[in-house]
Structures are given as structure tokens and as C-alpha cells.
Write the C-alpha cells for this entry.
Amino acid sequence: MRSDPAIKKPAILLAFWTPGWFESLVLCMPMIIFGIFVGFVAWFLVRYLMAGIFTVDQNERAVKTAFGRAERIASQTTLDDPVSEMLTEEERQRYCYPQVRVIPPGGPYFKWPWERVYKTSIAVQTVSMAYDPEDADANEGGTRLSAVTKDQLDTGLGGQLRFRISERNLYAWFFGVKNPIAHVMGFFISVLRERIANFEAPAVDPGADDGMAAAVAGISINDLRKNLSSLNEHMDRECAGAAARYGITLDASLITSIDPPPEVESALAAINTAHNQVSSDISLAQAHADQKIVQSRRAVEIETLNAQAEVEPLLALAGQVSSLQATGPAVLPAYLRNVKLSLFRKAARVILEDPR
């Protein structure tokens, strides 16, 4: 015969509800309370005190906040630091961040439960200049950055960008900008595209030796390739204020390739080949002309030396005659008579004129 569970419950409760059990519970209550207290203390020590100990690696820097507010250095801002020297007056009003206390490498350090530690690596990182942190498939998978030149050619740019987190503006990196890498990459790409769109090669003097370089003037891809180093230097100058804006220092930008569109690549190659051939012919003609000029200068020097060699004896003879004339009035006629006698000895026939 099945028993009803509702009838058994009061019986079980009555079995435990006895006067002896209650006195035992009262006697054990201090031990229970003490056990709860010990467990709470152990949990607090493990959860907050032991977990509050932290260290900072050699290539890391840290910032600590209390109730969400970072530890600041008095009332100093980034405008008091040389990192903001590259900013304009308008940008100095916009990018004014407080200077926070930076925790150097080492430890162990301690934080309270209401404090939070933010760590970041300051090691130099290298990414492709076509990298998009918000969309991995953008720019052909981060391998090619497109930019339009002044003559409306859609070129492909390739290269690398080296950056590191600025230790002197960690507030902007942690709290000032939501995604600093995306901001820096967007800023760099916009500056690069603006420079590509307005780039003009330096003016060439038509009368100079390299005047034929003007033969390909107006072809922006050639101008960009020839002035690649100046383009990289321009990008370094323009991005010098990134540390004050976003807390990221751009160490260097290296543009390694500038590729023309496929539909104009063959025509551009033909133009470059013809220009190289013309430049080669001009160089050969210039070398030949330089050689002729050098030979002419040598010939002039030789003839000048020969003329000086012929004139030198005459000048010496004139000096001797002058010195003889100075010695006395009869010396010069005697000298002339002796010279004539020596000439008569050498002559095969002499014709004398009758003084009458």
C-alpha cells in the first residue's frame, strides 16, 4: 500500500524537532559564527589582498585608477610637456589631457579593491600601412592602400608603419580615445592620400644638365617614385603630433611600392623606357662633349707653353743687350760686329751694298 508523502513530512520534522537537538544547535552556534568569520576573512584575503598584488614587465607601463579616476600629477597637462610642441593653437585647445602618474617596470605593487590597473606595452610595433583595425578585409586584406594622384590615376601603395605607445601621454591612450589605433591609422591614411593627390615634383631647370627630366613631367607616378624619400619625410613631419593627439608615437613610415593601375602600366613602362633611352643618349653626348673640351684645353695649354718657350730666349737676349749698352757706348757696336762675323762664317754667300 502506497503511503502519502504529505503524511511523512510532519513526521520527519517532528523527528528532528526535539529538545536535545535545539540545545546542541545553541551550543554550536559560536563555533558556526566563528567558522563563517574565518571563511569570510580567508575569502577577503585571497580575493582582494593577494589578488591586489601586481607587477609591471620591462616593456610595459601601467596607470592606476581609484573609483574610475586616474592618479594625476597635480594640475599638469600635456600642454606643459614637449610632446605638444607640434600642435597648432587650435589643436592645443582640443587635445589637452591631464598628466597621469605612470607606474614604472618592477614590483610587486599593491592596489585596493576599489582601484584598477591598466597596463600597456610600449614596445615598437610594425603594421602594414593598409591595415584597418576595424575591418580586416578592407584595403584588399590590409595589403594595398589605394590613393588617387593629381592626374586621376588610382595607384596602389604598399609599405609599413612603425609606432609605439607614448609613455608621456598614457591618458589619451587609455581614456581619451576609444580606439587609438583606428584613429591613428585613419589620420595617417588621410594625410597620405592628401599628399598623393597634391604632390608635384620640384621644378627642373631646362638649362641644367638634367633638363631632359622634364620630358616626363606631369606623370605623377614617376614623380612620386623619384621623390619617395621626400614623401616619407613629409609623412614623418605631419604625424609628429600623433603622440599629443592619440597617445601613439609614429617612429617611421616607410612607403616601399607605388604601383600604377593595370590598364596604364604598359603605357607608363613604354614612356619610361623611351625616357631612359633619351637620357642615356644625352649622357653619352655630354660625355663626348666633355672629352672634346678637355682635349681642347690641353691643346691650348701645350701651344701656350710652346709660345712661351720661343719668347723666353728673345727676352733673355734683350736683357743681355740692355746690360751691354749700359756698360759703355762702344761695347754694343763691338758686340754687333762680332755677331755679324759669326753670321758671315755660317753664310755660303754674302751680298754687300756699295755705300756710294
The chain has eleven helices and eleven strands. The radius of gyration is 48 Å. Residues 9 and 170 are 66 Å apart (CA to CA).
